[in-house]
Amino acid sequence: MRIKGAFRVWQRNFTVYTKLYKSSIVLNFVEPILYLAAFGLGLGGFVSEIKGQPYVNFIAPGMIASSAVFAAVYECTYGTYVRMTFQKTFDGILATPIGVDEITAAEIAWGASKSVLYGTIIMIVISAFGLVKSPLVVVAIPAVFVGGLLVAEICVVFVSVVPGIDSFNYFYTLFLTPMLLFSGIFFPLDGMPAFVSIAAGFTPLYHLVAVCRACAAGDLAAIPWSLAYLFGVAALLAPVPFVLMRRRMVL
Q1: pTM for the whole thing?
Q2: Which residues make Cβ contacts (< 8 Å) with residue 210, sequence separation at least 6?
Q3: What is the total count of domains within the chain?
Q4: Where residue 1 falls among pLDDT bands split at 50, 70, 90?
Q5: Which domain holds residue 167?
Q6: Based on the number of CB atoms within 10 Å of its own CB, is 191 exposed (0-12), middle (13-18) or buried (19 or more)?
Q7: Cβ contact 59:39 at 8 Å
């Protein structure tokens, strides 16, 4: 795989995004803000404190993580599938010296880049509203990138095996929604049955939320395990989307 070729494909995605960002940014930006307003301000009126802080402050760092994850998911599920199947963008790229591996690497890197972009936007917003205690929240940005890589890898794996675009309903309903609800964003998992906490511990969003919350509180000592998990699983999973995309795209 040539890094230059992968960068060119990433650059192509970035160029297209600069033409369409005004319409696409709404989907990723408004949703976490609505969650923050509905749960933080609405439900927060009935919840005094969680772990010694107002409810809206508790969920705010989790919005950084959820926005980052959703950005990678939207880009590397429907976005990648449409480019591959309907727009035939990948077919056109393969007519050049660029190969499947470069395309796969660029798709994953672009998903992670979108994670950083939207995660950073939400970080700025919640900081402006005084919902972050420590400026060390910026330390979460590298973790957001790694978390975005991991989620993008998972999405590209799914893209490589789905029979049709309707199959993404299973991915969103059976994987993304439970991961969002039981990631620790909206409530601590301490009071849940043990198997829920154990299962949540295998999801990338759970660990990304833990990192963002720790950084927002200025407690960097709390992040090594979650950060190691994101790095380790991303590294272990990395070869899989390349193998499966070769099988999908090369007859």
Answers
A1: 0.92
A2: 184, 222, 223, 226
A3: 1
A4: low
A5: 3-249
A6: exposed
A7: yes
